[in-house]
Amino acid sequence: MTFSYRPTGVCSTMIDLELEDGIIQSVRFTGGCNGNLQGISRLVEGMGVQDAIEKLQGIQCGWKLTSCPDQLSKALAAAMKEEK
């Protein structure tokens, strides 16, 4: 399944996901801190969607109430809702 998510409250403008049988195959961020987001993307590849959501949700970036990892958790949750 491919899924695109428009994050809010962060520098990145789009998160594109590829999921298969509840496993993250790839994550691509548009915008944001390129090196950090490449690292996050590689770390979650092969991880179960629910595991990634639990690890990433609630992370804040500086004074913001969210972050790119938190927005990734929201993207993953939205993708799982759409899949059902």
Written description of the protein model:
The protein is an alpha+beta fold and 84 residues long. The protein is built from 3 helices and 3 strands; from the N terminus they run βββααα. Strands 1-2-3 form a 3-stranded antiparallel beta sheet. α2 (49-56) runs antiparallel to α3 (68-83).
Which tags fit this structure?
84 residues, alpha+beta, 3 helices, 26% strand, globular
Can you lay out the helices and strands and say which pair or pack?
Elements: E1 2-5, E2 12-20, E3 23-31, H1 34-44, H2 49-56, H3 68-83
Antiparallel strand pairs: 1-2, 2-3
Helix pairs in contact: 2-3
Q: From the helix content, strand content and strand pairing, which structural class follows?
A: alpha+beta
Mean pLDDT: 97
Please provide the ordered H/E string of secondary-structure elements: EEEHHH
The total of helices stands at 3
Q: Fraction of residues in helices? A: 40-55%
Instruction: Give the radius of gyration.
Output: 12 Å
Tell me the overall shape. globular
Instruction: For the largest sheet, list the strands in their spatial order.
Output: 1-2-3
Strand content: 25-35%
The largest β sheet comes out as: 3 strands, antiparallel
User: For the terminal residues, how far apart are their CA atoms?
Assistant: 12 Å
Oligomeric description of these chains: single chain
